[in-house]
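=== RUN LOG ===
request id: a7f3
mode: sequence -> structure
chains: 1
length: 160
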Amino acid sequence: MLFFLSSITYISLLFIQLTTPLSMGLSIIIMATLISVLIFSLILSSWFSFLLIMIFLSGMMIIFIYISSLASNEILFHVNNMFIFPLVLLYMIYNYKQMMNMNSNNNLVPSLPSYSFEMMYKVYTPSIYAFTIFLIIYLLLALIVVVKNSSMKQAPLRMK
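=== RESULT ===
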């Protein structure tokens, strides 16, 4: 958990140094993924974290396509030794803690409580079929609207 929190902090500090919109979008996507994994580890239910990451990343993909069509071909970011050292240090600390926390029988798979697997199967219970179908239809309509907006002849996404 400390690894995820420190990684989120590091990426948010790195976000201040970025200049191009594409690298900023990439750092936001990485932060969203880390936050989703952190929420999964706290709640032990993949449903909320999966919905969060899917909705956020679908919006980010639309913004990414729009910005990449408008932005010039710049170098995304410069590798600086000042930023590589903390990242390597965080990775080494995380791996050291993982080695110290291994079970006595050297099991590399983390042990999850049995109820977390039961919660994953409750996603498609009959009581929430209507919500699931509504979500599928909503995402399909959003996809159709985005495709129609991007395929117009005089749309901002149209290349000249």
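=== NOTES ===
The helical segments are 2-17, 21-43, 46-70, 81-100, 114-121, 129-150.
The chain has six helices and no strands.
=== END ===
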